[in-house]
Amino acid sequence: MEPEEISSHVLNKLLKAGADDVIVSVSKQESSQIKFSNNLINATKTWENIDLGIFMALKKKIVLTNLKDFSLSAADDVVNKLLKFVKSASPNKEYAGIAKGPFSYKEVENGYDKKIVSLGDNAIDYVGKAINKALESGAKRTAGVFENSVANVSLLTSNDVKASDKGTHSYFSIRAFNNKFASGQKTGFSRIINLLDVEKLAEEAALISKQSLNPEHGKFGKFDVVFETLPFANIIDNLGGAMSAFSVEAGLSCLKNMIGKQVANKKITVIDDGTLKNGFNSSKFDAEGAPTQKNIMVDNGILRTYLHNTSTAKRFNTKTTANAGLLSPEPTNLIVNKGSFSKQELFEQVKNGLYITNVWYTRFQNYNTGDFSTIPRDGIFMIKNGKIGQSIKGIRISENILNLLKNVAAVGKMPERVIGWEVETPVITPAVLVKDVNITRPID
Amino acid sequence: MFKDLADFAVKYALKKGADYSEARLESTTSNTFILKNGIAEASGFDKINGLGMRIIKNKTLGFASTNDMNKEKIKKLIQNTINTTEKASKLREEINLSEEKANKDKYEVKQKINLNDIGPDEKIKILFDAEKELINTKINIPSRYLSLSDSITTEYLTNSDGTNILATVPKASFFYLLTVEHDGKTSQRIWQYGQSGGFEFVKKWDIPSIVVNEVKALQNNLKFGVKPPKQALDIVAAPQVVGIMVHESGGHPYEADRIIGREGAQAGESFITKEMLGTRIGNKVVNVVDDPLLENSYGFYKYDNEGVKARRKYLIKEGIINEFLQNRKTAYYMGIKSNGSSRSVNYDRESIVRMSNTFMLPGNYTEEELIKDVKLGIYMKNFMEWNIDDKRINQKYVGAESYLIKNGEIKEPVTRPVIEITTPQLYKSIDAVATNMEYHAGNCGKGEPMQPIPVWFGGPSIRLKKIRLGN
User: Fold this and answer.
1) How far is Cα B392 from Cα A409, in angstroms, rounded to an integer?
2) CATH classification for the domain delimited by B3-224, as one of 3.10.105.10, 3.30.2290.10, 4.10.520.10, 3.60.15.10
3) How many CB atoms lie within 10 A of CB B4?
4) How distant is the Cα of A284 from the closest Cα of chain B, in angstroms?
5) What does pTM read for this prediction?
6) Closest by Cα among B40, B61, B63, B43 to B53
7) Quick one: closest CA in A to B466, which residue?
8) How many CB contacts within 8 angstroms connect chain A with chain B?
9) Are A46 and B77 within 8 A, CB to CB?
10) What is the pLDDT of residue A308?
């Protein structure tokens, strides 16, 4: 039986049994990964996956299930279990329904690439070229992954949504080492493989690794910091999580009661765009079937809206932003609007500061206040009188996310496309200069 | 289960030219219940049936997984994997596995109260009871997020060396995020409980008491907390804090794949090298082990995901770097045997070197004795923010429930004391270890795609001498 027939079978059975709202999604994905370290391929990986996702609301009782067991008999079993399960579930008094179709959808521009579909073993050649480029550019060792996938999603809901979408994705991450304490990392993504320049990323990572040789221990204090795109994407990814209306309700957001208020310097505008051309998470529709849209989240420093699905939007007296997430609205592609400065011009504005090329292990002390710390890794450099100097190590950024965003002093003009191990939401951002960043380090 | 299909996959890969093949079947059913600010947000259940395979040909490793249990499709997947390993062989890391005994066994973690015998209503009632108790405290708790989950996983592992392991492990976990407000200030705690076994553990945890104690401590700290002293002092760190310290800086840097550099682009590498085996990292009182065999632990297994029999590993013995966590590949590389540390979180993830239950062994003192000798210090019962760099040297722990110690007695609460310290300094500053063992649950992150794997971390209370707190 075809997935669409199974979806329709499940939907009809649940509606017949009294469900008020039903969403059935089927996603099929074929993906591959080349994992490498020490300049050699550690493993090639292939995944084939079919998922059946069902959301059901019956008298405001919400039950969700995800099934990685795809057959008509499994679907029938799951319907019976859903109906049994919902009987003893408790109602969600705040539940306010799902998007009402039918809708018309626009194709994502540059969202599907036949070259990725037929890429197969040729992915190995890309990795080989990237490793060689990094070595030619001065790296001694490299590690990373190259991932490619083809996905098909179909969605059927009790509110007249019948839709499908397909997409391809390509993601590359490389960390280049000169020695254990001198490294650089770059990541990139694209829906079209020819638009992903793995060799350029490899070269840039290698150059950072070379530049960061012989680091000295950093000092604590307040410093002006030029954040490279990768670490600033990490900050923006965390801000994106705080933008979800679910996070606001659950205590996971520093943006509670901040709509219409300043949450960043006026130089900062952040957009969530589910329709973005060649956007890694762009799609025709969200998890309820609402057509994706472009939402201005932070407009010249002012928070305009949270990310919503239909139900959270009703609770906040607004309209969905088409960011469902059936429980928790999620960001799609986060874009920081570019400014007017070249990277060199950002450096030139710093008398005594730091240039940070990556961070990791960002953890919040209090999501409600936005207090957090994160650890710079890979190349970290002193900036003296506008010039990049000595590489350093052993420091930590101990800050408040709202404070950090309010202290943005200049925004670069060359955005990069970042996703990675710690940046789960794709972020497109230029480098930025932030004043008075609190730097700490282990006390001797 | 589709055991025949796994057996077939192993043989078929050999027939197609593989030198080694391994198949791992997983069948998991799980349930989750979420209560957010007193509202039953949703209930859910998931089901997984899938097959993951590792194939080595010409010393090249290929991994493949599918949840389509169709024999013809699996044959095609194996053929494709073999083709890819051939193409990759020109640029591959040479893969050799340590020789290990081919184990055949079957085991199950027993449940006194079967997780499937408890209905959704009874499970979510526990969360409603906790919510009611929270409201009864009259403490201002603007955000209350509670979640209860359980799962039963049956795995069948077979490989071309003759290994056959069938294992069934049920697990339950409870997660909470609580925000307490007082005088316009907020404080938060996120914590988790987790065990392998049946519903009896959920009952034993006494979830309403856990959350009530938590909000009382948070409020007490907000109301009466004083700033920590600036001068060097002694810290008595309680088991929750010791557990995370040991996990981050006594467990992760001992993962052999990090030491070799295999996780370089993701979870990072390690400041420890092979040459550091046998050298001193901490005081003689420090003993850190990783032990998958702790009964009913969250990281329990009898055989790892390569079929190697699990055992206790002494990572730090009397302050000396003693042993690394190994899988068959890293063990061969280092010229030794695997110590059974290969785990994958699901059928569709490659098994890699992981911790299981990592903890500091108890010493000879009571916690009271550790405190009694402190003139000026901090008692750090638990923590909120923490992190560590990717080589596992520079770490930070911010105390949540914490108190001043003056002349051997616990006094007023202290607000957010910060330990920001290097690994060698941390382990060298431990001068006394208590006997009060505790284990705590977490999901350790590693791998790409991420594999959050259930672990315990723990230990007794310890005393750190002459520490200057961070900002």
Assistant:
1) 33
2) 3.30.2290.10
3) 9
4) 25
5) 0.97
6) B63
7) A444
8) 269
9) yes
10) 98
